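Mods, move this if it's the wrong board.
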Amino acid sequence: MSAPLLLASASPRRRELLERVGLRVEVQPANVDEREQAGEDPTAYVARIARTKAISIARRSESWVLAADTTVTLDGAILGKAESPEEAAKMLRWLSDKTHQVLTAFVLIGERDDKTVIREGLVSTDVTFIELDAGTLADYVASGEWRGKAGAYAIQGIGAALVREVRGSVTNVIGLPLAEVLAALREVGGPHPKLAAGTAA
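Not the wrong board. Structure tokens:
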């Protein structure tokens, strides 16, 4: 049996997406400083974090490693994970009735023909929110789903009710652009999905 794909992330959503298409996944979260640097734009930020995660795990393994980082951005600002209900409400009010971008950078590192292969990708998806009235906003914040979520919402959960339109990869908004990652795995000769062995939603 081939070695599993090492996922340098504790995100249950990323693991679920990969296992859904029949990939064997072993989770090895990377412990890195995810604070943004002064003047860092959102694209550079997610690329740096994903690369740092991948390298930190690849140093300790001979298996293929996948790392990713996702952020929400509006008007060039990075909207990370809210630390309080008040911060979540502030983010959601800002996103209300606007189109924002969800950016995910991913990095694959592995060995092929005795050479280290690195493949990086970046996917952007446009997400348009409905106009949030005060009652809907307060109700969603009270749900607590915003905790630990970039931009303070989860499109795969209750947060779907806040979204009017998605243009681009839906799985990217969940946390991993699945089609693009699978294409990269094929190109580098990494682990292959087995759709028939996958898990239905």
